[in-house]
Amino acid sequence: MSEALLHRLAWIVTALCVAPIVAAALAALTGDLATWRDVLATVLPRYTATTLTLVVIVGTGTAIIGSLTAWLVTVYRFPGARVLEVALALPLAFPAYVMAYAYTHMLDHPGPVQTTLRALTGWGPRDYWFPEVRSLGGAAVMLTIVLYPYVYLLARASFRQQSANAFLVARTLGRSPMQAFWRVALPMARPAIAGGALLAIMETIADFGTVAFFNVQTFATGIYQAWFSLGDRAAAAQLALCLLAFALLLAGLERASRGRSRTAGRGARFETMERPTLRGAAGWGAFTLCFLPVLLGFVIPVIMLGTMAIGSGQDLFSERYLGFMSNSVVLASVAAVLTVFGAILVGFRARTRPGRTSRWLVIGAGLGYAVPGGVIAVGLMVPMAGLDNALDAFMRATFGISTGLMITGSIWLMILAYVVRFMAAALNAYDSGMATVPGHLDAIGRSLGQPGPKLLTRVHLPVARTSVVTALLIVFVDVMKELPATLILHPFDFQTLAVQAHRLAADERLSEAAMPSLVLVGFGLVPVLILCRTLGRESGGRKAAKMGVAMSAG
User: Fold this and answer.
1) What distance in Å separates the CA atoms of residue 553 and residue 182, rounded to the nearest whole number?
2) More confidently predicted of 271 and 489
3) What pLDDT score was predicted for residue 253?
4) I need a labelling partner for 355 at 20 to 30 A (CA). Which of 64, 194, 220, 285 fits?
5) Are 378 and 488 in contact (CB under 8 A)?
6) pLDDT tens-digit map of 244-285
7) Between these two residues, 491 and 36, which has the higher pLDDT value?
8) Tally of CA atoms within 13 A in the half-sphere of 450 that contains its CB
């Protein structure tokens, strides 16, 4: 295999990643104008308002929780700080829709909280007011407590890299620690905080399971309803185009507002400066602020799901559940291998031929990061369904046989959707490893007679081996949890854990949905524990930031 062939394969990977996005846009623009007018007049204002409300609440909530907790565990010593430093990342293991199932079971009218309240007070169902968990506010809270670790990971890495000198100068000028935080540390960490909040917002607009379960009307639920409930592919494509434009607009505005700002560099004094110890009320206050997100985002949901699963009568080792796990693992394994292989090809092309063309190649390959799974599914389903129908018509007319849905009815279309959706995660994780390979090693390898393919296999991959394994794990778990594209594209006789959990929860069988949900959380802990291990290393701030970005596709 020649180096030129590797470069051509990188272009093919990028083309495959861009194609469904372009197809979704073309399907929307070439659709019936009457349908488009109906969408504009009826559902579009409601979907836009609801989605914007979720974006504002989740973006603000994740930024506040993530940056405040990151600052406390990075700068101060207080009771439990070392444990909380790791535990604050654990809610990232939960799919948001699984969190919704747990809290609905706990807070609904027949749940343990309201049942206990009525037992203690003697109130009847109409004698008191209780906040409705199945609401827009409830969905926003679920998404916030699941997604704040994106901001936490990146903000913590940024605070670690900041020079201590600026903070110490502010203190010598009479500023209190809180004033120094607001005026010095926080502005320097703004790019990282904004980047983490953007990841949380992208996950919010792409979420389907949570908003569908809470009956909140967003673009994501609108695409699914138009496709399946109404059978209107043109409306689904047009809503997908609106969501795509919304996602790209958010990414563009964030990048434009950031300008040329960068995360502040690490200073030597920061590493040796003694962290002040918070004692008494201040120490326990810091502990409470940091423990509360862990309690709400991990401890309570795990307890609730475990209780529900024990009493559900579901057998995790039954043939049926083993089939769900087998389908999920096989699908995720194949998708992870193909995605990481594609990321290696694109990364190799960008490293060996740096320049504007390579930068656009990487941007195109990673474009799926900003595109919700429902948009990618529509972009694949519309042209492939047309191709299937044309092939079936040709075979019927020529040979008198029906080929059926050869492409749209296969798992390979699902795998292609996952490759497009999670290529950015693999690229970022792989790049974090390649950043440690000095550029002169490439020249040394070539001078020793190592052409392109051998340079990749004998120099790059051995050095970046840990990052490749990390990328495989991250994509594997992201595919396990992915719901919108899976619901649209999965064959009728091919069920996964995510689809099973959603189906049971949609039928209000929450106790039965707890079992597949717990398994998904277990798989989600794998990359989170990798991140936690990285967080424990003082030199791992920069790598943790890149790995945090890589987690964006879950």
Assistant:
1) 31
2) 489
3) 67
4) 194
5) yes
6) 787 777 766 666 655 555 444 444 444 444 567 888 898 999
7) 491
8) 15
How many angstroms separate the first and last alpha carbons of the chain?
Answer: 34
C-alpha distances (whole Å) from 185 to each of 160, 178, 529 are 10, 10, 27
SS3 26: helix
Q: Tokens representing 60? A: 């603000």
d(CA 376, CA 416): 9
Tokens of 307: 């209780």
Q: Which of 421, 434, 422, 423 is nearest to 543 (CA)?
A: 434
- Rounded to whole angstroms, how far apart are CA atoms 401 and 534? 57
Nearest to 198 by CA among 153, 159, 250, 141: 250
pLDDT in tens, 418-442: 999 888 888 877 776 676 666 656 6
Q: Does 333 have pLDDT greater than 50? A: yes
Classify domain 1-26+313-554 by CATH number: 1.10.3720.10
d(CA 103, CA 138): 9
Which structure tokens are listed for 4? 């030129």
Least confident of 7-21, 67-81, 223-237: 223-237
Helix (H, G, I), strand (E, B) or coil at 277: strand
Residue 306 corresponds to which tokens in the numbers above?
């475990």
Alpha helices, DSSP H, located in 259-372: 268-272, 280-294, 300-310, 319-352, 356-365
42-222+243-310, what's its fold?
Answer: MetI-like fold (1.10.3720)
Q: Residues 432, 547: contact at Cβ < 8 Å?
A: yes
Residues 6+ apart with CB under 8 A from 399: none
Domain span(s) for CATH 1.10.3720.10 in the chain = 1-26+313-554, 42-222+243-310
Rg of the chain, C-alpha, whole Å:
25
Tell me the average pLDDT across 54-59.
Answer: 93
pLDDT attached to residue 142: 94
Dihedral sign, Cα of residue 169, residue 172, residue 174, residue 178: positive
